[in-house]
Design goal:
The complex is a heterodimer of chains A (274) and B (337). Chain A has a domain at 89-158. Chain A is 33% helix and 26% strand. Chain A contains 10 helices and 12 strands. Chain A has helices at residues 41-48, 71-77, 93-98, 114-127, 142-155, 172-189, 200-206, 224-227, 230-237, 259-262; strands at 3-12, 15-25, 30-34, 56-61, 64-65, 78-81, 160-164, 192-196, 209-214, 217-222, 241-245, 252-256. The longest helix of chain A is centred in the middle third of the chain and has 18 residues, at 172-189. Chain A is globular and about 70 Å long. The model of chain A has no long low-confidence stretch (mean pLDDT 90). With 337 residues, chain B is mainly alpha-helical. Chain B contains 15 helices and 2 strands. The N and C termini of chain B lie far apart (43 Å). Classes of the chains: A alpha/beta (274), B mainly alpha (337). The A-B interface holds A 13, 46, 49-51, 70-76, 79-80, 82, 85-87, 89-91, 95, 99-100, 102-103, 105, 107, 110-112, 156 and B 2, 4-5, 143, 212-213, 215-216, 219-220, 222-224, 226-227, 229-234, 276-278, 280.
Chain lengths: 274, 337
């Protein structure tokens, strides 16, 4: 087990978010955290990385209790790609990626060593930003910026990579590019991956197992074809859907059904109802 | 060697050159102008004379104090701007200088030097600075988040309150204390006690050294606190240490030379535009430029309407206030963006 969560409750002052969540994840898999808005996905990610303190319950990474781990120790094990941190700095991609060496630096070490540079270079190569390493962060497109963020996370040499909605605000080219990259990191580099995702079809396509949160509680945990059934989705999301299998991958694919369609009314565009 | 480090070395040499030139100018200029060529001989020679004693007993300690205070205020500004991720934050605008001045003023009125001797002013300046920085921080903390507008407003208000309290003390204090208090509210580098200059110099250089151990932490802070935490920065511990460091540097500066505003704002702002946002170079470059800037301002203050001497705080206030307004307009805080 890489990650064990025992009876976790957590939230913000006056607003409990997660309630009595317990589950554990195996190593070597891509896990998706899904659930409606406000179900506690991002909170779960934040409490797993020590940004938030749990009110009760325990979290273990590789059997180490999170409160006993120093921040640097955690950063060498787990790297986080946040959704949209403000990084409009006047920094080049290369310098930004080198920030990822922070948890590995020694006292009295103020300049990057050759090894630091090699690791940063490899991280930029894996994410495909090596050619634009001298570009300034503030001038990048959303997709390039996300890749730079992932490169910085890889530069931490983590065992586990946590991504908070990595596809948000990106076009489909970049969405697929980033999720393919994540899968490659998992399959070829053996990196454990936890993704917070809104898009259920991406979750179905790329994840080995899914953690479904509902109202701050764990609703389901299992492979996509067990979690993404129309009964479960309608129960949790309160939306009518049709689930078929993707003709290419055979994984569940979710079709939306509008309220009108459900009632069998089909209105033409621009027509006022009489 | 790496291209980046070579550029940094170039900046250090360039700013060091500016500092050196400012130092020479400060030694040469004054009511009695001394030719540059004679300065080395007068400084290191044994010959007595008016010019030699002006140099060694008046201008040199003043130059070194300017170096120490200018550097310390700039480093303090870099630390605060780095932590709050805002170019408008500095010891003066956060009210730390005001708090330190109030502490110093209390020490003068309360005759603290009877117990603490020569350390009474530095100690009380430091205490005032620490008190204010925590006060400002906790007053502008809203649901665990710092609102930068609130922070600046609270700081300015604390400055007002401290200067009002200082005026209150002035109104009720004896004539002999009055002069000392006025001196501290205006800011001046005319302290020529070599022991105090020595303390200021070593404290300032130690402060630079100590803050340099946090250069990577400050870099991480520039991505935001949560990102810094993800990189393994113990942000709560770092904030405590850096607050203490910034207030120590400010408190000591104020206790030696009074309130000299905006050095910690202007210098880091300029340096960031020149050398970029990496704190490894930002800290050193700001120290050098800050020292040079204050020495130049002081020379200007001494000579502009000689033989009358202007308080150096007036010069930095006018220059710095203008640059503050410019930076404020550019940052979009005023237009509500």
């Amino acid at each position: 087990m890489i990650l064990e969560i025992e009876n976790l409750s957590c939230g913000y002052p006056g607003k409990p978010v997660l309630r009595e969540v317990s589950f554990s994840l195996r190593s070597g898999e891509i896990v998706g955290i899904i659930g409606p808005n406000g179900s506690g996905k991002t909170t779960l990610l934040r409490v797993m990385t020590k940004v938030l303190k749990p009110e009760q319950g325990k979290i273990f990474w590789d059997r180490s209790e999170i409160n006993r781990m120093k921040f640097g120790e955690l950063a060498r094990k787990v790297a986080v790609v946040s959704q949209s941190p403000a990084i409009d700095l006047n920094l080049t991609i290369e310098d930004f990626v080198l920030f990822g060496r922070f948890p590995h630096r020694r006292y009295f070490q103020f300049l990057e060593g050759r090894r630091d540079k090699e690791i940063a270079e490899r991280a930029m190569e894996l994410t495909g930003v090596l050619e634009i390493r001298r570009s300034i962060l503030g001038n990048l497109s959303g997709g390039e910026r996300k890749l730079a963020l992932i490169a910085r996370a890889l530069c931490q040499e983590p065992e586990y990579l946590l991504l908070d909605e990595p596809t948000a605000h990106l076009d489909i080219t970049h969405q697929v590019q980033i999720l393919d990259l994540v899968r490659r990191l998992n399959r070829r580099e053996g990196m454990g991956v936890i993704l917070v995702l809104h898009d259920l079809n991406y979750a179905s396509e790329y994840c080995d197992r899914l953690v479904l949160l509902h109202g701050g509680r764990l609703s389901r945990l299992g492979p996509p074809d067990e979690v993404l059934t129309y009964q479960i989705i309608e129960e949790v999301y309160r939306t009518t859907v049709v689930v078929k299998s993707n003709p290419v991958s055979g994984r569940p694919f979710i079709f939306l059904v509008s309220e009108e369609e459900k009632r069998g009314e089909r209105s033409s565009p621009g027509q006022k109802k009489t | 060697m790496d291209e980046k480090y070579l550029t940094w070395l170039g900046w250090v040499l360039f700013l060091g050159g500016i500092l050196f030139a400012a130092g020479l100018l400060a030694l040469a200029m004054g009511p009695a102008s001394i030719p540059l060529a004679k300065i080395p001989a007068l400084l290191w020679g044994k010959e007595p004379g008016i010019e030699a004693s002006i140099l060694r007993e008046v201008r040199l300690p003043r130059l070194l104090l300017g170096f120490a205070v200018g550097g310390a205020l700039s480093v303090s500004g870099v630390i605060l701007q780095g932590m709050f991720r805002n170019p408008l934050v500095e010891p003066y605008t956060l009210g730390i200088s005001g708090g330190a001045a109030l502490g110093v003023c209390l020490a003068i009125v309360g005759k603290l030097n009877r117990w603490l001797g020569i350390f009474s002013l530095p100690a009380s300046g430091f205490a005032g600075a620490v008190l204010v920085i925590y006060l400002v921080y906790f007053l502008s903390l809203n649901k665990g988040m710092i609102k930068i507008q609130g922070l600046l407003l609270t700081g300015v208000m604390i400055s007002f309150i401290s200067s009002s309290l200082i005026m209150l003390f002035m109104a009720v204090s004896r004539v002999e204390d009055l002069h000392g208090i006025i001196f501290w509210t205006l800011g001046s580098l005319s302290e020529t006690n070599w022991t105090l200059v020595g303390i200021a110099l070593s404290a300032s250089l130690l402060g630079l050294l100590a803050s340099y151990f946090f250069c990577f932490d400050l870099n991480a802070f520039s991505l935001g606190e949560e990102e810094a935490l993800h990189l393994g920065v113990n942000i709560e511990r770092d904030k405590r240490i850096l607050f203490l460091l910034a207030s120590a540097l400010t408190g000591l500066s104020v206790s030696f030379s009074g309130i000299i505003g905006f050095v910690g704002l202007v210098v880091p702002h300029l340096v960031r535009m020149l050398v970029g946002p990496d704190h490894r170079i930002l800290l050193v470059a700001s120290f050098l430029l800050g020292a040079g800037f204050l020495i130049l301002c002081d020379t200007l203050a001494r000579t502009i309407i000689a033989p009358v001497e202007l308080p150096v705080g007036v010069i930095t206030g006018i220059l710095g206030g203008g640059i503050f307004i410019y930076a404020l307009a550019r940052s979009g805080l005023v237009s509500g963006k």
